[in-house]
């Protein structure tokens, strides 16, 4: 029994062992040079006796073993040359068996046995059988493992496999397989016994040492996987049952896990598929402490890759009913291993789903079955808090999206939303973002109200506050990104049938209205524009679409829009609500719905009066109102007069004089619309311009009173440009003398400020004068109009 000493002691013992090997190897080489067989055997036994130590750890023992191994290679070369030692190989094989100690004797026997097989003076199977039996004499775990590893190494190129020099009547592939299996069985028994060396206080160190030794055992399985002539039938009937029997019967956690991993890695995928029953049965018989999930995951990953390698192999999966067998095995493992953490079960389901999507992509029922099993397992847990398990659930839900590149397919899976319900709020949002990104990436169009309902249930974490969440705690950039994603999603909902599209809009509105004041400003505008798209679709259709018996009418859509924007205006977000009211009013005008357009304008004016107090926002709102009203031609005289009167009144009551001036001259366009059917009231347009001129003059006087100079004349120049516009458009009330007077007024204003021109207004005014000169010189009708103006 080896005592566990310190590192320094082991280093000392290793150094002593290496010194002993080098010392005896020196004399062995001297005997080799002299072709003195007796002395060669004497010193080789002394050299190999250094491997009898029990003081070294596996890692240190390996260093010692490699020193001896290098010398054994030289010894083998000597044994091959009969002319040097003078003995037939058969006699040499008998001679080395007289060595005093079992360990040096067996090493020498393996070395001479390698030469004996190569000489072909005896069937290789007989020599191999003799060697593997002789190695039973060394039962110390570490010494025995390295001895048998040496046997496996020197015999690897001498196995009687198909195509080798040692294949013949007396030697078959089966003999090679039998030798490797027997050596593997004995090595595994020795490896398992390592854990029984020493008291329980050193168990952790022992396990680490056993891990270092595992490759010695696993090499046998690698050799089995490389033997030429091991066909499926032999593998199925002999190799796998023998290996699995040893794995199951050893009752050792580390050995079972490592050897099952080796089986999966070293043998061909098609063999795994045809022996799936045996492998899965073995998995269910492993020790409860073995991490079976990794074994099964590796098996499913290999089979998945095999299925993806060629479409020609898919029928094999159907023949063996691979999905049913894997699904049942996973169910049994999860059921029997009660202590398996939830992340382990989720990992298994992810691998099974990956396998299903690769092998049976057309079987959505299989996909839903896996998700259903996941739901059952998740339901047994009070709350999913393990971050790793959460990550696996996200991977499970992402797999169908990546495979089908179509969220519509995922929406048909009944268990998909049930799995999402088990995610925490943060992960639910991550998954919802992945769903939206998938839709955007694949340009998917969701075209039915039922699917939209399911979709918005899936992404509910983004469109409303879930239980226990507070939007105030969210990072502002993340929140905006989430809501912008939802906004983009709304534009992906479309249907050519107006009735179905109206249903979609109603479903979306129902969900969005639960979003709270922070979300509505992001999500309502795309909903409004989606509905306006439907309005224009209805407008372009032939026939009477405004009848009361038709469910999808522009009037019905505008009712929904009015209610939706009204909610937004109470958030409060009056500026955005006003813009949307004006957009809807313009759309109503295009549909010849004067009452609807008037009502929408009324709501916009109410918002302006009651909610918009900031002067800058008022200026923006006024220009939006004027611009929209100017484009609308559905109003009758009375309604239009009412609205234009309101607009001009609001313009004149703005706080700052320059803002008043610009808003009032903008109102002049309400009375002169340059369309065939547009209103053309030149007198009222001129009144607006004169009113703007008076306000500009007042602004100049205020500037002169407060700053000591009249300031820039930009307002006068802007009004001059409006005069020129209406003059060219044919307003009979604007004459060349009006333009002449305004030019002179601007010149006087500019010269009154100590004769200096204002830098900012001068280029604008200069450009305007240049334009007038150009029109005068151009000739024709326009030139004649401009001719009376003297500059």
TrEMBL record:
Source domain of life: Eukaryota
Biological processes annotated in GO: protein transport
Keyword annotations of the record: Cytoplasm, Endosome, Golgi apparatus, Membrane, Protein transport, Transport
Keyword Zinc-finger among record annotations: no
Any Pfam family the entry gives: Vps35
Localization per record: Cytoplasm; Endosome membrane; Golgi apparatus, trans-Golgi network membrane; Prevacuolar compartment membrane
Coiled coil residues, start to end: none
GO (cellular component) term, any one: Golgi apparatus
Location, primary (coarse class): cytoplasm
Function as written in the Swiss-Prot or TrEMBL entry: Plays a role in vesicular protein sorting.
Protein name per the record: Vacuolar protein sorting-associated protein 35
Species of origin: Cardamine amara subsp. amara
